C-alpha cells in the first residue's frame, strides 16, 4: 500500500492538477498544498528528513525517523490543527467540490471522513485493496480483523466511490457488502519497471547454481512452509551438487513462529535455503532475473505484485491457482494448486534442470506479457473522481 500511495503522490506532482495532502501527526493534522506535498515527495525519495524539531521530540513513543518526518511536514504546512478543529481547517482551505482520496487503509477514521463532508460539495473515494482480514482472520495480527471490519463499515457508510485493484477484490467487496456498496471502480495497479542491479547484492549472491526466489513478508498467508517442505523432501533424494537453492527474500512477519523455528534450526539453512531481508528493489530484480523462477504459493492475494515483477523480467512464475493471478497474468504463469504437491515438485525440478542447462526465461513470459501501467490506472481513477 505504501507503494500505491507513493505512486499517487508522484502522479499528482507530475500533473497540473491542483491538490492538497492531509497528514496525521502526533499532535493533530497537517495540511500541505501542492508545493508542500511535492517537497515532501522529494524528501521521501531522498530519505532525508533531517533532525526532529523540539515539538516532535515531545512525542516520546515515536521512532526518531517519524519525529523528523513530522517536523519537516510542519515546516511545509499550509495549515495545521488539533484533531477537534479538522473540519474548520478543511473548510477554510479546500475548495468547494473537492474530491478526497484515501489511498491506504490508514486514517479512514470517522473524524476525518466527517470533517471532509463539511466541505461543500466534497466527494469521498476510498481505496480498499482487499478483504483478506475478513476472509482469513486466522492469518492476521491480533486485533486486525476487528479493526478492518470497522474500517470496512465506515468505508461503506461514507464513500461515494470505492476504488479497488482488481475485479476479484470488487467481487469480494460486494460479497461482504451486499446492497450497501457504493459505486466501485476497478483499476489494476501499475508496474514500476526496475533496472536489475547486482551491485546491490551482498557477497555470495546470486548463487552459482540454479536457484529459486520466494518474495514477500514471511507470514502464514504467503505459505513459505510449503516450499520449505519441498526442499526438505528434495534433500533426501537429490545429490547436494544437483540441489537447487531457495532464496527467501523478505522480512519476518507475524503469527509464523513454527516456521521461524524451522528456519532457525533446519540443517538446510545456509546451504540450500537462505533468508535475505532488506534487499533493495534493484537487487531483488537482479536475483529474479538470474533465477530459475519465482515461486508464489500464496493462499490469498488482493493483487500480488511479485508475479507481475517476475513476468515483466521474463522470469518463469510458478504460483497457486489464484483468481487474481489469472486476471492480471492470464496464462503466463505455471499454475499449481497448493494441494497438488506432485505438480509443484515436478515443476520445480524441471525448471531447475532447465536453468542448470543454461536455458532462461519461458516461451511466453516477457515476450507476450505487458504489465499494467500507472497511466491506465489513473485514467480510470481520475475520470471517476
Itemize the secondary structure elements and their pairings:
Layout: H1 2-14, E1 21-25, E2 28-32, H2 34-46, H3 54-57, H4 64-76, E3 79-81, H5 86-93, E4 99-102, H6 110-117, E5 123-127, H7 132-135, H8 144-158, E6 161-164, H9 167-177, E7 183-186, E8 211-215, H10 224-237, E9 245-249, H11 257-265, E10 273-276, H12 281-289, E11 293-296, H13 305-312, E12 317-319, H14 323-329, E13 334-335, H15 341-356, H16 374-384
Parallel strand pairs: 4-5, 5-6, 6-7, 8-9, 8-11, 9-10, 11-12, 12-13
Antiparallel strand pairs: 1-2, 2-3
Helix pairs in contact: 1-2, 5-6
Describe the structure.
- The chain is an alpha/beta fold and about 375 residues long.
- It folds into 2 domains: about 1-190 and about 375-385, Rossmann fold; about 200-355, Rossmann fold, CATH 3.40.50.2000.
- About 40% of the residues lie in helices and about 15% in strands.
- The protein contains 16 helices and 13 strands.
- The chain has helices spanning about 1-15, 35-45, 55, 65-75, 85-95, 110-115, 130-135, 145-160, 165-175, 225-235, 255-265, 280-290, 305-310, 325-330, 340-355, 375-385, and strands at about 20-25, 30, 80, 100, 125, 160-165, 185, 210-215, 245-250, 275, 295, 315-320, 335.
- The protein has a 6-stranded parallel β-sheet with strand order 10-9-8-11-12-13, sandwiched between helices.
- The radius of gyration is 23 Å and the shape is globular.
- About 35% of the residues are buried.
- The model is unreliable at about 360-365 (pLDDT under 50).
